[in-house]
Amino acid sequence: MTDIIHPLILCGGSGTRLWPLSRKSYPKQFARITGAQSLFQASALRLSGVEFAPPMIATGADFRFIVTEQLAACEIAPAAVLIEPEGRNTAPAILAAALILQEQHPGALMLAAPSDHVISDTNAFRATVQAAIPAARSGDLITFGIRPDRAETGYGWLELTAALGAGDAPVPQPLKRFVEKPDATTAQAMLDGGRHLWNAGIFLFSTEALIAAFAQHQPEMLATTRNAVSTATRDLGFTRLDPAAWGQLEDISIDYAVMEKAEQISVVPYSGGWSDLGGWEAVWRHGGPDADGIVTHGPTTAIDCTNTLLRAESADQQLVGIGLEDIIAIAMPDAVLVAHKDRAQDVRLAVQHLKDAGVAQAETLPRDYRPWGWYESLVVGPRFQVKRIVVRPGAALSLQSHHHRAEHWVVVAGTAKVTIDDHVQLITENQSVYIPLGAVHRMENPGKLPLTLIEVQTGAYLSEDDIIRYDDVYARERTPKT
Amino acid sequence: MTDIIHPLILCGGSGTRLWPLSRKSYPKQFARITGAQSLFQASALRLSGVEFAPPMIATGADFRFIVTEQLAACEIAPAAVLIEPEGRNTAPAILAAALILQEQHPGALMLAAPSDHVISDTNAFRATVQAAIPAARSGDLITFGIRPDRAETGYGWLELTAALGAGDAPVPQPLKRFVEKPDATTAQAMLDGGRHLWNAGIFLFSTEALIAAFAQHQPEMLATTRNAVSTATRDLGFTRLDPAAWGQLEDISIDYAVMEKAEQISVVPYSGGWSDLGGWEAVWRHGGPDADGIVTHGPTTAIDCTNTLLRAESADQQLVGIGLEDIIAIAMPDAVLVAHKDRAQDVRLAVQHLKDAGVAQAETLPRDYRPWGWYESLVVGPRFQVKRIVVRPGAALSLQSHHHRAEHWVVVAGTAKVTIDDHVQLITENQSVYIPLGAVHRMENPGKLPLTLIEVQTGAYLSEDDIIRYDDVYARERTPKT
């Protein structure tokens, strides 16, 4: 019998190095960087199929509805969505998931993987995972090592006890040690020596072996994480780990917490394409530069450019580059980044600067994801604002009222069930309804298709905090911050 | 008595070198490049005041309502707005205006000036014009020459018979000859010699002297232009030169047509700041680079940049530059240009490429100016579109109907008089009205304030050409191209 593998997809991270596409409110793993799917969706699909059980997901509270929506879009039903009350790096999240899995499937094999990397060859990756099963079954903690093709200083490396042969067979190897991000000389020496691989942060283990390793090396973390799991609450399909216990946990990666200390550990080499897309320079390289070194995405025009990445993220925005060399240009309707390719990592400085200046684009996108769907502001004028609102089938906005604004809703797709004070009505495409100032109202999508409506707000004060909630199926606060 | 000067502001041009800010539908002279006013508005204001009569304007039919709106915004009532049926360069337009002015004010002094240049020191410019009056009154054709501060190859130059002194006094000088755009060596020699000025294309003359010069050097053009003027039609305050006569005119600048041939011509030097803003590199220079060579405009962030222009044209779009050197970056919500500064002139190649590809951004802006005001599309989705529409006080859209769409109008500012079939109603802020598919309808702004409404269109076909016009106060075609 083949062992089924339980994937754990880690998607709590929130980097700024791919700003403006990746923002705190909608980070890299959920963005469409390399194709029609987000990196998270691609990860979930890569870990789907006969050899995999439904995935567990570990994420932050802010991203739970993005996770739900993106999984639904690729028709994947997760086994569980764990909500980390705060980011605590990978060790606590992986341990919590292992404890939950161990209760349900004692001794199950778990594959823990980040969701913000790109792996080009799904079949090769799956074959590599399969090749690691016997060692994992025998109690090894397996880490996957990427065969390097350059002296990369941005990754951690794995040192083997002996050089790999030329063959690509994914045979488990003994690990000598983890190597921190190296300097250029060290990286070159490691590349030349053939005894080092990149650390991809992907792990395979049996839950028993992992829990045993934590018992040996991190007994306190194990006890606290058990607490966080045993007092977790289930809420709308999410498993919300206990915040009090979680708050006591150390912020530490699984490498530091147990992998570097464990005795029975091995490395399985992976030879297919891989990138952590750790910055725009990595996106450029992954994009496959043409003979002039040009990579483009979206409606772009490159004239006499070399070694340049041009990305227009919206179909409605044209990006033109002329005579550029070693330039990264990322265009979005609300924010544009132009950077020298060697300085692409410094986008974090710009994001910090914008954040300090109170600029919304530092951390948020125009489109705001909510439990019931999403909305975006189309135009803000004096005493009016126009929004596009999309409500998922079966979803409902809270029962609410506003002190300072009236609203017109025009349905342009689907059907809305609208409650205004005591009156309930269905309105459908090409119909509209008026919500007077002060009226208690609710919108629901009772149908099977997404509901799209245009909301025209009028009034003297149009901020999101003019909302009084009377009842909310998503248990949000009555007077929210946003 | 001081001679009053009649300004003629030329604003028919349509360049692409400042794309994406300047587009065929809304060219450079109407864009806000250097401040709160457009170059055209700044020109009109510079030529206002006690020493000037109300200006005459010469423009193309496509721009007539932009002219009207921009003049109204700076409270200038033009003496006449001449519509050139087709662009014929400066000679026919200046001559037509001179003929009209000569009828009304025989022997009047006219100052003909382009509207797409920037002149920093209004007082110095006006003093220079005043200093030229005696020579113009005595029958000279005056051209103004800009004292050069660099060996510019992008301009035509004026050669004097003797070197200018160091003083700044605007004393009329004899012109030896016009010099075509020079190569770099020639330009440097001219700069060093002190006998050459830049040709700004600004002229002062009495209408009698100018018409006499045309009679001598361009008798055929004079006769044809007289025809175009005598059969001009007046239409909504515009003087529409006769298209048949106009079509026979040569496309030629006033320099070539008469100035280079005329005998009684002199040059008045101008020492204040001037730029033709002939490309983004000129905009950068005019912007006053700081010690690092950085010029910014709008919400921009420059980190470790040198000799770089960063412009964000919308308050809602952030532009970030990191580690850039000699880069021009112009961000707009629908189009972004990033170019090496030495290649900024090649933006025309990009515009041509986009035009060939049928890309709207090549020539048009999201905001579309109409006789009655303007509109812009806020979002286009499947089977729906949302527009913001602004109607000027007293203006009316045509009586119309659509085969394929219904419309919801929500008024967010001002008051609309809405006719739907036989029913007329007033709707005001926070009210809405529904226009069923096929209904014959009209919108008017009967008030004293601009009317702003949000239009939500629904239907299977939403292009502008689904419009049947029954009656139009602006005499447009019943089934227009756009």
Automatic annotation (TrEMBL), chains A, B:
Pfam families: ManC_GMP_beta-helix, MannoseP_isomer, NTP_transferase
Top-level lineage group: Bacteria
EC number(s) given by UniProt: 2.7.7.13
Keyword Isomerase: yes
Catalytic reaction list: alpha-D-mannose 1-phosphate + GTP + H(+) = GDP-alpha-D-mannose + diphosphate
InterPro entries in the cross-refs: GMPP_N, Man1P_GuaTrfase/Man6P_Isoase, Man6P_isomerase-2_C, ManC/GMP-like_b-helix, Mannose-6P_isomerase_type2, NTP_transferase_dom, Nucleotide-diphossugar_trans, RmlC-like_jellyroll
Domain Nucleotidyl transferase: 7-285
Domain MannoseP isomerase/GMP-like beta-helix span(s) in chain numbering: 302-354
Record key words, sorted: GTP-binding, Isomerase, Nucleotide-binding, Nucleotidyltransferase, Transferase
The protein's name: mannose-1-phosphate guanylyltransferase
Organism taxonomic ancestry: Bacteria, Pseudomonadati, Pseudomonadota, Alphaproteobacteria, Rhodobacterales
Entry annotated with the keyword Isomerase: yes
Domain Mannose-6-phosphate isomerase type II C-terminal: 367-472
Naturally occurring in which organism (per UniProt): Roseinatronobacter monicus
Family, per entry: Belongs to the mannose-6-phosphate isomerase type 2 family.
UniProt-listed GO biological process terms: GDP-mannose biosynthetic process; polysaccharide biosynthetic process
GO molecular function: GTP binding; isomerase activity; mannose-1-phosphate guanylyltransferase (GTP) activity
